[in-house]
Queue: 2 jobs
Job 1
Amino acid sequence: MLLAIHHVAIICADYQRSKHFYSELLGLKILAENYRAERQSYKLDLQLPDGSQLELFSFVGAPPRPSKPEAQGLRHLSFAVLDVAKTVEWLQQAGIAVEPIRIDPYTGAAFTFFADPDGLPLEIYQVSDRES
C-alpha cells in the first residue's frame, strides 16, 4: 500500500543553475551527487525537512517542458509552508519572481506560485502546525 511520496524527479536544462536554485536558494539538503558518464548525466538527490526528496537530473538534448498552455501530466510541485507571506518575502529577497498570493476557495488556505529556472511551476501552500 502507498504510504507517501518518496521523491519527485526533475530534468533540468542547466544542471549547475538548477543545483544552485534548489540547494542554495530554496535550501534543500544535498544527500548525494553523482555524474553518470555513460549517460553524460548528473543525478542530484535533495531532501526537504520532512524527509521527502527531489531528484535533479541533467540529460543531453532533453526537450523543454511545455508550461503554457498547460499540458497533460504533472501540473506543478507544491511545497507546504507555515506562512506564505513570509515565504514570499524570502523568495523575493533571493531574486525569485513570485505571483500574487491567492486564497484557495475550497480550503481557505493561502498559496502562490513561482517557477524554477526551467519554468517548472512551483507552489507554496500554507498549512497549519498540525498539518506539517
Note: The chain has two helices and eight strands.
Job 2
Amino acid sequence: MTDSTGAGTAGAGDTDADPEAGVAFSRQMWADDEASRRLGMEALVIEQDHAVVRMPIREDMVNGHDICHGGFVFTLADSTFALACNSRGSVTVASGADITFTAPSRLGDVLVAEATLRSAFGRSGITDVTVKRESDDQIVAEFRGRSRSLRTP
C-alpha cells in the first residue's frame, strides 16, 4: 500500500486499473486536512470506497444541553465521507448530505464513524456513514452523503 507521502501524483486517474493510487490520493487529502486534525480526528482505515475515523468529544464540543453539538457529529461524518468518496483518485466534493441524530454523545465519549460507498454512477455517488459511540457501539447518527467528482483540466 502506498503511504501518504507518495500520494501527490494521484489525480483523476482510473483507479479501477490502480486502486492503490486512489487510496494514496485520499491519504494525501487527509494529510492536508487541517480542520479534521484540529478537531482531534484520527483516520483508522482508508480503503477504496471505505473509511473509519474516530474523534474524542472535548469540553469545547459540548453545547448548552451538556451534549456534543450536532455540528461536530456532522463534521466527523462529513470528514469520513470525504475519505471514502475520494478514494478512487478523483477530486470529489459533497453535493449534499443528510443526517439523523439517534442518540446523544457527551464530554469524554469517543465517536467512531464508518463510511461505505453505496453507489457510484457517472461522476456522482452516494455514501452512507454510521457514527457510533466507541464505548458501547450505540449508534449516534446516520449520515447519507451525495458526492460529485470534479472534472480536472
Note: Strands lie at 42-47, 50-56, 92-101, 110-121, 124-133, 139-149.
